[in-house]
Write a structure and sequence with these properties.
alpha/beta, Rossmann fold, 8 helices, globular, binds adenosine-5'-triphosphate, binds magnesium ion
Length: 240
């Protein structure tokens, strides 16, 4: 079997709360792999550390322990925990996409430009990038009258479609999805699920968290169950 695109071994993240002199574990000893053309789903109760795992892989924050091995198209491996900031920016530009739970965008940027942004970053000409953004937004049923305005004032479901389109447009090799269908009506959620199925057949590796268990059952090739990490006192006992 082909080697995984992503291999996570013993990942852990502990937050230091200086003002309270406390250590809060958000993930502890998490291991799994993600393969090309497959979707690995993270499941578990609220607070189990699902979003924290995605943020560690995207290096939104620096992991505290473990290894996160990313294998690029040429077969080169990079430990995301040890990579330089420059290497991380390159990975985000060319290889890894992240659809976060909430869209962050500038108030005056049009929806077309927000979605086309990853293509601009890869040197695609402005009009071509905007054309591809328009095609994707049409496929996701976002009304055309919204394309020229900023998503800042959109409803939750409209915003989420913009967020997804921006994550999909540059066809990253690894896509991280944090509850991508949570705020969508059933019809739009179905569009997104079909798009995810298509990306799988095209070879994209995906790591996802879904709100509905039936979406996990339908899309996941592997399911990783996370449990809330033990308290720091318990972790220390384990180490002694
Ligand atoms: N920046 C932070 N500082 C301190 N604690 C944090 C931070 N980020 C996350 N945590 C803690 O880590 C734990 C895991 O959070 P996380 O957001 O990963 O959970 P989750 O499994 O995604 O939950 P949900 O299903 O509610 O989205 C929580 O107890 C949270 O309070
Ligand atoms: Mg979460």
């Amino acid at each position: 079997m082909a080697k995984p695109v992503l291999q996570v071994d013993g990942y852990g993240k502990y937050f230091q709360l200086h003002e309270q002199n406390k250590l809060i574990p958000s993930s502890h000893n998490v291991s799994f792999s993600v393969h090309a053309g497959e979707l690995t789903a993270l499941v578990g109760p609220t607070g189990a550390g699902k979003s924290s795992v995605l943020k560690g892989i995207y290096r939104s924050y620096l992991p505290t322990g473990g290894r996160i091995l990313y294998r690029d198209a040429q077969g080169h491996e990079l430990d995301i925990c040890l990579a330089s900031d420059h290497q991380i920016l390159e990975l985000r530009r060319r290889e890894i996409g992240f659809v976060t739970q909430f869209l962050h965008c500038l108030p005056r940027q049009s929806t077309l430009d927000v979605v086309a942004h990853p293509l601009f970053m890869n040197g695609v000409a402005r009009e071509e990038a905007r054309q591809r953004a328009a095609e994707l937004l049409a496929e996701m049923n976002l009304p055309e009258r919204l394309w020229s305005v900023s998503p800042a004032t959109f409803s939750g479901g409209e915003r989420q479609r913009v967020n997804l389109a921006r994550g999909f447009i540059a066809r990253p090799r690894l896509l991280l999805l944090d509850e991508p269908t949570a705020s969508l009506d059933p019809e739009t959620a179905e569009c997104v699920i079909r798009l995810i199925e298509r990306l799988k057949t095209e070879g994209t590796a995906m790591l996802a968290i879904f709100h509905h268990p039936e979406t996990t059952r339908r899309l996941a090739d592997r399911v990783i169950v996370l449990t809330p990490p033990p308290a720091v006192e318990e972790l220390l006992k384990e180490m002694l």
